[in-house]
Structures are given as C-alpha cells and as structure tokens.
Amino acid sequence: MRRLATLVLSTLSLAAPAAAQSVGCGNTAAGFDQWKGQFASVAQQNGVGQAGINALMSARYNTGTIAADRNQKSFTYTLEKFMEIRGASVIVQRGRALKAQNAQFYASLERIYGVPAGVLLAIHGMETAFGSFMGDTNLVSATATLAYDCRRPAFFTPHLIAALKLIDSGSITTSTVGAKHGELGHTQFLPGNALNYGRDGNGDGRVDLYNLSDAMASTAWYLRQKGWQPGAGYQEGQTNFPVLNEWNAATVYQRAIAIMAAQIDG
Fold first, then answer.
1. What is the DSSP letter of 189?
2. CB of 128 closer than 8 Å to CB of 186
3. Hey, how many other C-beta atoms are within 10 angstroms of the C-beta on 26?
4. Which stretch of DSSP H or E encloses residue 178?
5. Tens digits of per-residue pLDDT, 7-40?
6. For the whole prediction, is pTM greater than 0.85?
7. What mean pLDDT value characterizes the chain?
8. Closest by CA position to 6, among listed 255, 260, 248, 266
9. Is the dihedral of CA 19, 23, 172, 64 positive or negative?
10. Residues in CB range of 185: below 8 A, 6 or more apart
C-alpha cells in the first residue's frame, strides 16, 4: 500500500530559527540555489555543523514534493471512504498477526510507555504498510524544498534545521530517502520530531527510525510526551483520543487509527 502524503501528520511546536524570516522564499526552482547559500548562514546560527551545511548545499529542488504538497485530498473523504482507500481491513489483519508474533516486544512497549500495541500497529500500518514503503524521495531535498517554498516556510524551516542536525549526528545521511514531505522511518516522523523524540529502542547507542525497535519506541514516547494516559481509553470522546491529534491533525485519520487499533487489540 503506497502511503499518501500527509503533511498534517505532526503539529510539532519548534522554536523559529534565528533570522529565518530574512531568507525569503520562492515558488519555482529559479532561486533555490541562491536561497540555499543564504539559508546556510541561518543553519550555522542554529548550530548546524559542516556535514549538515554540505548536505544543504547538495539538496535539489524537488518538483514531486511540491506536487504532493498541492494535492492532498484523502483527508476530505468520509471515514468509510478513507478507511477503504487506506486498506483498513488489511492493516487490522496484519496488525493482529504482528502483535501475536511479537507479543513480548509490544507488551514491553506498553509497560514502559503506556501505549497499547494496537495504536502503534495501526499507525505503523497506516503510515508505511508496516515498513514496506518508507518513501522514495531524498529527505534533505524534500525538506529544503518545502522550507524554500512560499506556501509554508515557517512550518518547514525548523524541520530543515533538524534534518541538517540529524546529518551532523549521523542519524541520517545525504542519501536517506523518506516521504514527499521529508517524513522518515517506519512511522514517518518529520525531522524535528525525530530529533526531539527519537528513542534508542534496541540499545545500540543510536537512534535509527528505519529500525523497527527504535521507531516503535519513538512513536510510543512521542504519544506519551503529548499527553497519553496509560490505561485510559482512546476512542472518540475518551481521554486519549485528543492525543491522536498530536500525531495527525485530520479528524478522519484520528478516527481511523482509533477504530483499527481497537480491532487489532481485540
């Protein structure tokens, strides 16, 4: 199942980088290279090192990212249509099987973070079909394109800074691919979320959201930090349902996750 672009997957609150408003923006590729040179100064002011600056300068304007950003239709569907086109029945079936196969793993995540397996598996299935498609777009190029684009530079500028810092730390490389809006890994974190909420789930000393253990631990930690209450309900009208808004601001997405999660958890 190819994942549809989901710009609104995160409502991350990040501090605006210093002097970011002075860099300007553009709606075509024409000024992109000049903009990168100007943005490099902003990146350096915000703690980006040489590896991150080199990655920025190698970024290319991505027309596919712009097209995806202008064509997000699935969140206008009814709940029934949304679940149909996103393959809800397949997600539930596969989610149940994965929970049974990895019962100890998901039980440990719920014990540590308080988030049930069904919620994590529903998100995993919705975002990348359980890791079968985690994107085909250069992550730095996608994020830089959106930070340069005049539509939402204030939103994407902090994510570009974060992506460049992830380059500096070795969490990603200049060749890392993600979704069209720069989302990465099994559950499609935006770079700022990856930087701020990434967890080392397998104990190898690094955060790699393309590793399932790290991605699931990070997803659970993110939800917990956004207000998830262990043991409380997550259906519409219950305590934890509003936390799903922190993952994706589309109500139809939140409702679908809650329904699928309950079916996975039985």
1. B
2. yes
3. 15
4. strand 177-178
5. 333 333 455 454 444 588 999 999 999 999 999 9
6. yes
7. 91
8. 248
9. positive
10. 134, 178, 194, 208, 209, 210, 214, 215, 218
Give the type of residue at 168: D
**CA 106 from centroid of its chain's CA atoms:** 20
Positions of the chain with pLDDT lower than 70, given as ranges: 1-22, 72-75
What pLDDT is recorded for position 76?
79
Domain residue ranges of the chain, discontinuous segments joined by +: 19-70+137-180, 77-134+196-265
Residue 87, both tokens: 């393959």
Amino acid, res. 55: A
Structure tokens at 215: 């991605």
Q: Residue 3 is which amino acid?
A: R
SS3 category, 203: coil
Domain at 77-134+196-265: CATH architecture: Orthogonal Bundle (1.10)
Q: What is the pLDDT of residue 23?
A: 81
Token pair, residue 128, equals 């990348």
User: 182: closest CA among 195, 199, 200?
Assistant: 195
pLDDT, tens digit, 9 for 90 and up, residues 39-67: 999 999 999 999 999 999 999 999 999 99
